[in-house]
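During data preparation, we tokenized the protein backbone, and the record follows.
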Amino acid sequence: MTSEKKSSGWSSIRRHLDVQSKPALLALVKDLYDASSTNRNFLHARVQVEAGDGTVVEKYRRTIVEQFYPQRGFGKLKLAEARKAIRDYHRATGDLTGTIDLMLTYVETGTQFTRDFGDINEAYYNSLESVLREMTQLLRKEEPALYPQFRERILQLEAHADYIGWGYGDALREHVRMLEAGVSGKRK
């Protein structure tokens, strides 16, 4: 069974692709493009970012904001959809700046939603805090040089943390403190 698994893995596909002509590879990519909207979105995002099109992140941002503040009706709070937009963008583009921007958008929008409509529930705040934790790790360990680009938004977010329950306001302030102490070295 393990030999079956190995022969059907990426390495066997790569061996097959290595010997294909450019027209055959283009036909394969076209078939993948036609197969699903997920593939189309992935390819569009990858090509647009590689072409230097900075607007691609806006499509993903709209998906996130729409879960909280749709153009019509009330927010459905499909947090999994919003988080999927962040993952999909990162997977398609590898753009860490855009990914952090989308993470921050998620946390900002979720925090503003609480300020506008009141306390939600523990799972809601756990989701916001999880993305905040991931964003903090990226800024502290992988790309500390990006922190100044997001610092003003993050400090504004901290100012909005007052009176938010479930320990979320405290967690938000703690993450900002860690970023300020560990990345910018401004305050302790």
Notes: The radius of gyration is 20 Å. The chain has a mean pLDDT of 88. The chain has ten helices and no strands.
